[in-house]
Amino acid sequence: MPDPLTQAVQQLLDAVRGYGSCVVAFSGGVDSAVVAQAAQVALGGRAVAATGIGPAVSADELATARKIAGEIGIRHVELATSEIDRPGYVANATDRCYHCKEALGRALGPVASAGGAVVVLGVNLDDLGEHRPGQRSAAERGARFPLVEAGFTKAMVRDASRHLGLRTADKPAAACLASRVPYGTPVTLGVLREVEEAEAGLKALGFGELRVRHYRDMARIEVPVDRMADLVAQRDAVVAAVRAAGYRYVTVDLEGLRSGNLNAALADLGTAVSS
User: Fold this and answer.
1) CA-to-CA dists, residue 153 to 4, 7, 38, 46, 135, angstroms
2) How far apart are CA 34 and CA 37, in angstroms?
3) Inter-axis angle of helices 4-17 and 154-163, to 10 degrees?
4) Is the pLDDT at 99 greater than 60, yes or no?
5) Are 69 and 26 in contact (CB under 8 A)?
6) Are 201 and 244 in contact (CB under 8 A)?
7) How many CA atoms lie within 13 A of 139 on its CB side?
8) From 98-102, 214-218, 229-233, 256-260, the region with the lowest mean pLDDT
9) Would you say 256 and 223 are in contact if contact means Cβ atoms under 8 Å apart?
10) What is the pTM of this model?
11) pLDDT tens track for 57-96
12) Which of 10, 83, 202, 232 has its Cα between 20 and 30 A from that of 212?
C-alpha cells in the first residue's frame, strides 16, 4: 500500500487532471510550485503557470518564479495587474488582499477563458483557518484549491515538495511587499519602492530571510533571532543600506522574524492573518 504522502500526491494529481486544463496562479512559493508541478505532470501542455506582475512583487521573487517555472517545465506567462489603481487596495484596510486578488483574477480571466481552463490557487487546509480575504475573491470567481481538495496541510506541502524534487521544499515563507505596511497606512508606489530597496540592500549583506516593516520614516527590521548578532556586527552597513532606501530611522525588532506579525491588531478581534 502506498505511504500517506504518495497517496496525497496521487489525489492531488487526480484532482488537477479532473479540471481538464488549468491556469495556476504562480508566485514561485512552496504551495504554488507544488500545484504547478502537479499540473505539469497531470495535464502537460494543458497547464499554464501565470504570475501577476505588480509593484508589490519584488524583483527577487519574480526572478525566482521564472527560474522555478523553467525547472518545472510548465508554460509560464507574466500578467500585469492593476491593484495599485484600486482605492480599496491603496487604503490598506484589513481587506487589502481581497482587492489584490480581484486585480489578479481580472488578469487571469482572459487567459483561462481562452483555453477553457480552470484557475487554481495554492491554498492549503491550514490557510482556511486564517483571515485571508483574497481567498474569498478567488472563490467568488470560481477558482479551485486543489491542495485543499487533496487534503494537504502546510507541512504536507513541504513534504510533497521534497518528494517531487522541487527546490522550494525549504524556501522561506514569502509575501508581497504590501504585507510590510501596517493596516491603515496607504500602500503607494513610493512606499513599496522603499521596502523593496531596503530589503534588497540587506539581502546583499547576506540576510536572506527578513522583513522590513514600514512605519513612514522608520524601518523596523526583522531577522531570525539567531541572525541578530550578525545584524549588529554589520551595524554600519545595515544602517547605510536602509537609509539609502529612504528611511530616516533604522530599528530592529528584538522578537525576531514573525510571519504576519503586522496582523497582531486583528488578534483582538479573534482573527489571525498570515503574510
Assistant:
1) 13, 14, 16, 26, 16
2) 5
3) 90
4) yes
5) yes
6) yes
7) 9
8) 256-260
9) yes
10) 0.91
11) 999 999 999 999 999 999 999 999 999 999 999 999 999 9
12) 83
